[in-house]
Design goal:
Length: 296
């Protein structure tokens, strides 16, 4: 019988050993309960920690674009074939401009744009890599200001403990969605070094300028998503310092992840719709002209 009682009290004995330096005869009951809650939170944080580690990695580590370096070289080589044609076109315009000062100035401006475009296209890989490094460094600096235990379940007070048990599954879901979106962002930014060279080329060609601007804006918006995430997480962590939000930590965390997820999805939809409108606009103009000619 004594052995049975000893086995029953053995877990409590080990729990109390976890906080042996803080526990004593006077606070044994509260110490045991606190250790038990810490043990349970450790179990609950176990599936969250790997996800959070992946999220932190995708937020702070620079995107690897070296894998697309050979493809970038091919794209730049193809684009360089148009340099001669563009220079010949500018020279031809300059010759036929005659005594028109306005046409000569336009030709000079076009020549300057082509030379700038050639330099930027040839160095687009390094410029893109530099932008990634800067974004990563700034994001890391902001995330380092976030409370270390902000993303983990804690035992701050009874209200938080209850809410964390209730909203654990929604919190895991929001973190998982963020991880998926960050993975997609990583893939897009990594492959974006190819599109960046094309976007720069298009930007300096007047009929294609809007397409080039769209590509560049999309890539830099996608690249800077991590900084936006870091700002949202820092702001959310600062909210917990206010008395009004101290009892709703899990809700603040879910709100932060949900907000960045919705903002990312909205950005994707906005870019897709804007791209479709940009592509459809010249097509609709051609259709309207053909319809007018046919009607006449």
């Amino acid at each position: 019988m004594k052995n049975k009682y000893f086995i029953l009290f053995l877990p409590i004995f080990f729990i109390s050993l976890v906080s042996a330096q803080e526990c004593g005869i006077t606070n044994l009951a509260s110490c045991i309960s606190e250790s038990l809650f810490n043990f349970l939170l450790g179990i609950l944080n176990a599936p969250i920690q790997p996800l959070l580690d992946l999220v932190y990695y995708l937020l702070t580590q620079p995107v690897n674009i070296d894998i697309f370096s050979p493809i970038w070289s091919i794209i730049v080589y193809i684009l360089s074939l148009f340099y001669g044609m563009l220079l010949m076109y500018v020279g031809f315009r300059f010759l036929i401009s005659g005594h028109s000062v306005e046409q000569r100035e336009k030709s000079k401006a076009m020549l300057a744009n082509i030379l700038i475009m050639m330099v930027l296209v040839q160095s687009s890989f390094y410029l893109y890599s530099l932008a990634i490094e800067v974004t990563s460094s700034v994001t890391t600096a902001v995330l380092n200001m976030v409370q270390q235990n902000f993303f983990l379940l804690t035992i701050d007070n009874i209200a938080n403990i209850g809410l964390q048990f209730v909203f654990l599954v929604p919190y895991l879901t929001s973190v998982l969605i963020t991880l998926i979106l960050l993975t997609l962002r990583y893939m897009i930014v990594s492959a974006g070094v190819i599109l960046f060279a094309v976007g720069v080329f298009f930007y300096f060609i007047e009929p294609l300028k809007e397409y080039g601007k769209l590509i560049i804006n999309f890539l830099f918006a996608t690249m800077s998503l991590t900084f936006f995430y870091a700002i949202v997480f820092l702001t959310s962590s600062k909210l917990l310092e206010l008395v009004a939000f101290q009892n709703t930590k899990i809700l603040i965390m879910i709100g932060a992840f949900s907000f960045v997820n919705l903002a990312t999805i909205f950005l994707i939809l906005f870019v897709v719709i804007k791209s479709a409108l940009k592509v459809a606009s010249p097509i609709m103009q051609v259709v309207s002209v053909v319809g007018a000619v046919a009607g006449a």
